[in-house]
Amino acid sequence: MLMTAEDYRSYNERMKRVVKVAVRDIRLLPVVLAVLISVLSGAMAASAEDEIIIAGEFLTLDRCIEIALKQQPNLMYYLYQINQGEAQVGQAQSGFYPTLDLQGGYTRNQIVNKYHTGLNPPPTSITNKDDYNASAQLNLMIFDFGKTITNVRMKNYYLMSSKKTYDAQANSTAFNVKGSYYGVVTAKRTRDVNAESVKKYEQQLNQAKDFFKAGTQALYYVTQAEVNLSGAKISLMNSENALAIAWDNLTTTMGIIYNAEFKIDEDMSPKQFSVNFEEALDTAYNNRPDLQALTAARDAAQKNIEYAKKDYFPTISGTASYNFDDGRFPLDNGWMAGVVMKWNIFSGFNTKYKVAEAKAARDAAEAKIQALKLSVHSGIKQSFLNLKLAGDMIPAAELQVKYATENMDVVTFKYEAGLASPVDYTDAVVQYKSAKLTYINALYNYKIAQAAITLAMGSR
Fold it and tell me: What angle do CA 396, 397, 399 make, to 5 degrees?
């Protein structure tokens, strides 16, 4: 069908509108793209802020401890204990403030009188009575012989104990992070040693096969090399599993769930510990938060004794009220003010046993302090012994690694030249691996001993 002139003009108009819309959309495309990029970048930035650890991030030991102190759920319990203590202090301080009570009520009474006397008793009478009442009463403790202030001081000591308990748990968390952190480094190095042993046994197997093909060694040595390689591979698999567990221990100790392996500082070179035993012990007695927590608890128990004894004395309070009361409106009203003294003379020896209970709690707290001091002394002493042992072992282990490495190189050269037996080669690999693992464990023990002394001193 042929297009008419009118159809052609209509077609042109439609095409112009399409082109115009297309051009407009193209011009808006950069704006749309800019908005999309801004939104996506903002979402990515928010996501990055929400991430505790960024993929591929390098974490130092201090950074791991910082994360643990913020994320470890176990510490939240002790924070809530502090909040509890602060609330209890506020409750104790409320005794210094007046109390205001408002009361209102309505009652309706119906009295039926059926019992009348006389010759012509009147009929049964029914009486209804409404009663409206309202009152506002103000009470203020004037003097209680120091009972309220003693209670406030006691609650403040308990609050201080909660805070110091939190500090002690934070120190323990930092120590656990150190152990897990060095545990990862140790596991990685152990894995690397086992991987190196696999390579050496692979070299032995290849060499044994070459010797067998050349007719210089029996098939037995090929089989023995295969057994050695199989055992080395099993050790490598175990060390890979141990490394995965070490990573999980570290992230769990930090209070996070993280499935990837981030980068950490693998330097475990020993650093001289400048504090001696006497200095560490004095610092521990002065700075350990758990010891300070027990001391605060003992002081609180002492205040509790004073608080219990205050029940032997009266309490003097002021009271004032304004009352409305009547059966109809407007209600009668009036006020009342006065001073009230309350003094319990006898309560079945309740106060006496409260004092006895408080004294027993004070003595128990003192016994805990002495037991902890004994434990602190023993812990610091044993940690210094472990530090000395690890410090003495490190140079000896280094020397052992040096000699084992030299022996490994010599035996490898001789074995490849056919001048050493497969047994010599296997013994050299075993000695080399043992020397390296001994050195790694000595470094780990030294770091843990240092961390234990730092913890025992009340630091992080």
Answer: 65
293, 161 in Cβ contact below 8 A?
yes
Burial classification of residue 175, based on how many CB atoms lie within 10 Å of its CB (0-12 exposed, 13-18 middle, 19 or more buried): buried
With CA atoms as reference, report the closest residue to 108 among 128, 89, 78.
128
Tell how far CA 226 is from the center of its chain: 49
The residue count of the chain comes to 460
Q: Which among 270, 264, 236, 237 is positioned nearest to 180, based on CA atoms?
A: 264
Question: C-alpha angle with apex 450: 290 to 64, nearest 5 degrees?
Answer: 75
Cβ of 164: how many Cβ atoms within 10 Å? 22
DSSP character string of 414-448: HHHTT-S-HHHHHHHHHHHHHHHHHHHHHHHHHHH
* DSSP category for residue 216: S
Please report the pLDDT score of residue 17 as a whole number. Answer: 59
Which residue type sits at 269?
S
79-93 per-position pLDDT tens digit:
999 999 999 999 999
Domains recognised in the chain with CATH numbers: 61-102+145-312+344-456 (1.20.1600.10)
Task: Report the distance separating Cα 41 and Cα 48, nearest Å.
Answer: 10
Decide: 190 and 440 in contact? Cβ < 8 Å.
yes
User: For the segment 382-424, what is each residue's pLDDT rounded down to a tens digit?
Assistant: 999 999 999 999 999 999 999 999 999 999 999 988 889 999 9
3-state SS class at 333: strand
**Alpha carbon separation from 383 to 136, 138, 179, 305 (Å, rounded):** 67, 62, 14, 39
User: If we measure between CA atoms, which residue out of 426, 427, 430, 428 comes closest to residue 408?
Assistant: 428
**Is this structure's pTM higher than 0.85?**
no
pLDDT tens digits for range 40-74:
444 333 333 346 777 778 999 999 999 999 999 98
The DSSP line for 99-139 is EEEEEEEEEEEEEEE----SSSPPPPEEEEEEEEEEEEEEE
Q: Is 274 helix (H, G, I), strand (E, B) or coil?
A: coil
| Alpha-carbon dihedral angle through residues 56, 60, 65, 67, given to the nearest 10 degrees | -30
How many CB atoms sit inside 10 A of residue 277's CB? 14
Largest CA distance in the chain: 148
Is 149:64 a contact under the CB 8 Å cutoff?
no
